[in-house]
C-alpha cells in the first residue's frame, strides 16, 4: 500500500486530487510557522510543524502501541480497542476499522464502543451516587463513590445486563439507531447493581471489539489500559476478567497529547525514531491478572 490518496476512490467519487492537501507521515516536518502565524500565536517564526496524528493513533504512540502484537484499550467517553500491525488487516464486514498508523510503515485496527466511560458519566449525571454510599463514606467524592457502590456487588451484577448503546454503536453493529438497555431488572437490584452492570456491560462491549481483532489475526498477552476509566482499579479488574487478558497501566495518563508530543520530538530530531522515543519515555507501573 502506498499510504496516499486512493486514485480509484477519488475517481469513483469524482473528486479532483488537486483539491486535496499533500499527505505526510506523522513524524515528517510538513511546514514551519510563518510570520503571520507567529504574530497570532506567539510561536517563534520558523518553528517546525510536524504532521501529527489522529487522537487514537497519537494515543497509541503515547501508550507504546507501535509494534505488531501490542494492543491498547482507552476507556474515555468512548472506548477504543487499538491494535498495531505490520501489514494492513481487514474485517470484510467493516466491523473494525483499518488505518495507516502514526508510525511509518505500520498500520492499525480499531474497534469502538461509543459510550464507555460516557455511560458511567450519564448514570452519575442522571442519578448520582446513592444516599447510602454518601452517608457511609462522607469524605469520598465523585466517581469514587460509584466505585464503592460497584464493589458491594459480586461479578455478574445479580443477572442485571447493560448494553452501552446510549448514542448508537460502531463495533460490532455499525448502527446509529442502537439504544442502551438494562435487561433483567428485578426487586433485589439496588443502585449498586446498576453501577456495576454498567462497568461490566462496557467491558463486554470491548470484548466484542477484541474478539473481532482476534478473528483477523491480532493477538497479545496483555492490554495497555488508559483513559479516565483506567483510574478505577475495580474497572481494570473487571476488564481483565472479561477480556481474559492481563491489563497494564503506564506512567503516562494522557496518551494522545503525549503521543503527539513524541511525534513532534521525532520530527524535530530530539528522537531518532518513534521506537526510540517510546523506549526512552514509557514504562509499565501496574498490572492486573484476570
From TrEMBL:
GO MF annotations, alphabetized: kinase activity; phosphotransferase activity, alcohol group as acceptor
Record's keyword terms, sorted: Kinase, Transferase
Segments traversing the membrane: none
Domain Carbohydrate kinase FGGY C-terminal: 74-267
CDD domains in UniProt: ASKHA_NBD_FGGY_EcXK-like (cd07808)
Gene3D superfamilies registered for this protein in UniProt: 3.30.420.40
PANTHER family linked: SUGAR KINASE, XYLULOSE KINASE
Protein name (Swiss-Prot/TrEMBL): Carbohydrate kinase FGGY C-terminal domain-containing protein
Source species of the chain: marine sediment metagenome
Amino acid at each position: 500500500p502506498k499510504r496516499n490518496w486512493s486514485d480509484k476512490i477519488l475517481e469513483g467519487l469524482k473528486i479532483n486530487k488537486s483539491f486535496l492537501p499533500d499527505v505526510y507521515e506523522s513524524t515528517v516536518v510538513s511546514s514551519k510557522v510563518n510570520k503571520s502565524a507567529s504574530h497570532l500565536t506567539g510561536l517563534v517564526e520558523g518553528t517546525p510543524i510536524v504532521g501529527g496524528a489522529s487522537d487514537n493513533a497519537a494515543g497509541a504512540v503515547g501508550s507504546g502501541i507501535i509494534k505488531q502484537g501490542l494492543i491498547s484499550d482507552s476507556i474515555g467517553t468512548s472506548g477504543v480497542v487499538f491494535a498495531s500491525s505490520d501489514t494492513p488487516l481487514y474485517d470484510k464486514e467493516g466491523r473494525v476499522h483499518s488505518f495507516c498508523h502514526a508510525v511509518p510503515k505500520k498500520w492499525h485496527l480499531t474497534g469502538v464502543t461509543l459510550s464507555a466511560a460516557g455511560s458511567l458519566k450519564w448514570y452519575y449525571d442522571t442519578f448520582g451516587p446513592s444516599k447510602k454510599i454518601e452517608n457511609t463514606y462522607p469524605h469520598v467524592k465523585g466517581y469514587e463513590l460509584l466505585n464503592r457502590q460497584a464493589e458491594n456487588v459480586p461479578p455478574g451484577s445479580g443477572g442485571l445486563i447493560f448494553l452501552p448503546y446510549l448514542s448508537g454503536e460502531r463495533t460490532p453493529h455499525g448502527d446509529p439507531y442502537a439504544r442502551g438497555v438494562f435487561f433483567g431488572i428485578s426487586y433485589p437490584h439496588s443502585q449498586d447493581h446498576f453501577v456495576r452492570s454498567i462497568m461490566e456491560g462496557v467491558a463486554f462491549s470491548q470484548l466484542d471489539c477484541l474478539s473481532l481483532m482476534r478473528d483477523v489475526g491480532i493477538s497479545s498477552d496483555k492490554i495497555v489500559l488508559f483513559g479516565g476509566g483506567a483510574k478505577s482499579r475495580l474497572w481494570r479488574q473487571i476488564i481483565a476478567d472479561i477480556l481474559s487478558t492481563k491489563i497494564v497501566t503506564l506512567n503516562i495518563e494522557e496518551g494522545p497529547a503525549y503521543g503527539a508530543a513524541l511525534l513532534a520530538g521525532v520530527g524535530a530530531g530530539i528522537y531518532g525514531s518513534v521506537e526510540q522515543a517510546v523506549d526512552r519515555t514509557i514504562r509499565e507501573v501496574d498490572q492486573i491478572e484476570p
